[in-house]
Design a protein that fits this description.
Elements lengths: L10 E3 L19 E7 L5 E8 L12 H7 L12
Parallel strand pairs: 1-2
Antiparallel strand pairs: 2-3
């Protein structure tokens, strides 16, 4: 891999049962992704994308606005426990 093309990025999986939760404001760079605990409309709790950096190309994005609209509130965002 050519160093000029290397892009540092972090994927964070938040632990739902952690005694001390990981800080949600760490690793919020343009290529970082967070998976966190979200509460969907029917009250169930699931793990989904809670943060995606702004420079992640559309073809690599994990969040899905259509799925969020179906599972989330009326404005298309998930009802999250953290954002």
């Amino acid at each position: 891999m050519t160093p000029a093309f290397a892009v540092p990025r972090v994927i964070v999986w938040h632990n739902a049962v952690a005694r001390i939760p990981f800080l949600t404001n760490l690793f919020r760079g343009p290529y970082d992704t967070h998976f966190g605990i979200v509460r969907v409309e029917d009250g169930e709790v699931e793990q989904d994308v809670t943060y995606e950096g702004s420079d992640i190309p559309n073809r690599l994005r994990l969040s899905n606005p259509v799925r969020r609209m179906r599972r989330g509130n009326q404005n298309g965002s998930l009802v999250g426990l953290e954002h």
